[in-house]
Every structure is written in C-alpha cells, then in structure tokens.
Amino acid sequence: MTMKHEAYSTHAGDKTKKKVSCKDMGGTCDATFEGNYQEVMDIGWDHVKEHHPEFVEKAMKMTEEERKKWYADFDHAWVSAGVIE
Ligand SMILES: [Zn+2]
Q1: Hey, is 40 helix, strand or coil?
Q2: Whole-angstrom Cα distance, residue 4 to residue 82?
Q3: Angle at Cα 72 formed by Cα 34 and Cα 61, nearest 5°?
Q4: Of 9, 27, 71, 84, which has the fewest beta carbons less than 10 angstroms from its beta carbon?
Q5: Cα–Cα distance measured from residue 55 to residue 66, given in angstroms and rounded to the nearest whole number
C-alpha cells in the first residue's frame, strides 16, 4: 500500500529516529518500531499486515475524515515519542 503521508502529516519528512509502538499506529500489541517517520510507517505497516489484519481492513475503509484523524493521532504519538540515538 502506498500512502502519501505528506498529504496528511507535517511530520512526514521527519528524519529524526524515534521509537513508536504498535498501539501508536492503531494496533493492539506492545511491539515497537524504530526509525524515522517513513521507516516506522513502513515497518509498522508490515507488522500490522502480518499481525492485525482486522486493523488493515478497517484502515482500507477509512473515510477521508477518519484518515485525517488517524494521522493526527499518530502525529501526536510521534511528537511525544522518545528520540533514539
Ligand atoms: Zn502489533
């Protein structure tokens, strides 16, 4: 799935490496992903596709408003996330 993060997030090009959790992405487990914004999106999506198909199904059906909210929620988590060295 190709997502134009830039259309939804002002942090899309953020190269700061951070650690976010599956829950930050709307998943349900305690797995964590490390990398810059694009990297955690890629790793995170691979993870939810493998472990949380119900979330992926829901994401595919998101309306524009729901998608904006998802990105807003993730961006909030991204800003709060710990920076890794
Ligand atoms: Zn998970």
Answers
A1: helix
A2: 24
A3: 95
A4: 84
A5: 13
Tens digit of each residue's pLDDT, the chain (85 residues): 456 899 999 999 999 999 999 999 989 999 999 999 999 999 999 999 999 999 999 999 999 999 999 999 999 999 999 999 7
Q: Is the pTM of this model over 0.85?
A: yes
E strand or H helix at 82 = strand 82-83
Task: Quote the ligand 1 centre to 66 CA distance (angstroms).
Answer: 20
Sign of the four-CA dihedral 5, 39, 47, 74: negative
Burial class (CB in 10 A: 0-12, 13-18, 19+), 25: buried
Q: How far is the CA of 22 from the centre of ligand 1 (A)?
A: 5
